[in-house]
């Protein structure tokens, strides 16, 4: 009896301790620039990088569905334009690595792109996967999971209107996902264009050295009126972490698949992590709150 009571008391204490830690992280974290449909309430956004691309062919509906099922709170996807100007989801400039096509994505119309096999390069069992359209992904995600839409630089021009930014934004609005989408781009013109198109749309600056011209993290975010700052784990120094914390800027770090690295980045204060393995990150976060 005594042992049972003792273990209940200890259990409760641990429960309270882990809850307190999670709450502490939540209260310390800057306000997120997007609403989450499924917030694990742990102060860290688990982002499926190109879906659950560690296990499924990247940027396919199979990878997005899997990320959702693994408990990712957000899905990252790369968007560019087909020759006929339709936003499509693929990472590379060329088709060769992730499809059975060749040459530039932008040299083929949507109809041609949709005939390609976007899964066999990963495993023949995914041979029916196609290059998704952004619209298809929004249709899937609406009401279910938040998105980070990364605009690929090759599709960005000097024009604010009729480009990839406006087309993507129109689709986001069509599916009423505005508050659940964080746009980002390595091309800072896309950030500027999106804010001109809609000042209230959430945009993250995806750090690119040349365009940053020696500005500090805080100066960059303020200059582009960005809502968040995204960078690689290699770039996320203590100095940057301190700057972000001081200015209350949410920081999202890509692409982290190793547990030790995930822990380090969480402790440094990141608001979210892009990973090819959302199941691993989810488990790690859960355990961190239990054992810390
Ligand atoms: O948006 C985070 C990350 O995806 C940026 O790099 O090359 O994987 O698109 P990349
Ligand atoms: Mg990306």
Features:
292 residues; disordered N terminus; binds SN-glycerol-3-phosphate; alpha/beta; single chain; TIM Barrel; binds magnesium ion; 11 helices; 15% strand
The small molecules bound here are:
SN-glycerol-3-phosphate, magnesium ion
**Uncertain regions spanning at least 5 consecutive residues:** 1-21
Q: What is the CATH class name?
A: Alpha Beta
Q: Helix- and strand-based class?
A: alpha/beta
How many DSSP helices?
A: 11
Main pleated sheet: 8 strands, parallel, barrel
What name is given to the CATH topology? TIM Barrel
Spatial separation of the terminal alpha carbons: 28 Å
Overall geometry? globular
SSE order, as H and E? HEHEEHHEHEHEHHEHEHEH
* Overall tally of structural domains: 1
Q: Reading side by side through the largest sheet, how are the strands ordered?
A: 1-2-4-5-6-7-8-9
How many β-strand stretches? 9
What is the C-alpha radius of gyration, as a whole number of Å? 20 Å
In short:
With 292 residues, the chain is α/β, with parallel strands linked by helices. The chain is built from eleven helices and nine strands. It has one domain (29-291): Phosphatidylinositol (PI) phosphodiesterase (TIM Barrel, Alpha-Beta Barrel).
Description:
The chain is an alpha/beta fold. It has helices at residues 2-28, 61-69, 110-113, 134-141, 164-174, 188-197, 209-212, 217-223, 238-246, 259-268, 278-291, and strands at residues 45-49, 74-81, 87-89, 146-151, 181-185, 202-206, 228-232, 251-254, 272-275. The chain has a single domain (29-291), classed as Phosphatidylinositol (PI) phosphodiesterase (TIM Barrel, Alpha-Beta Barrel), CATH 3.20.20.190. The longest helix is centred in the first third of the chain and has 27 residues, at 2-28. Helices cover 39% and strands 15% of the residues. It has an 8-stranded parallel β-barrel with strand order 1-2-4-5-6-7-8-9, surrounded by 7 helices. It is globular.
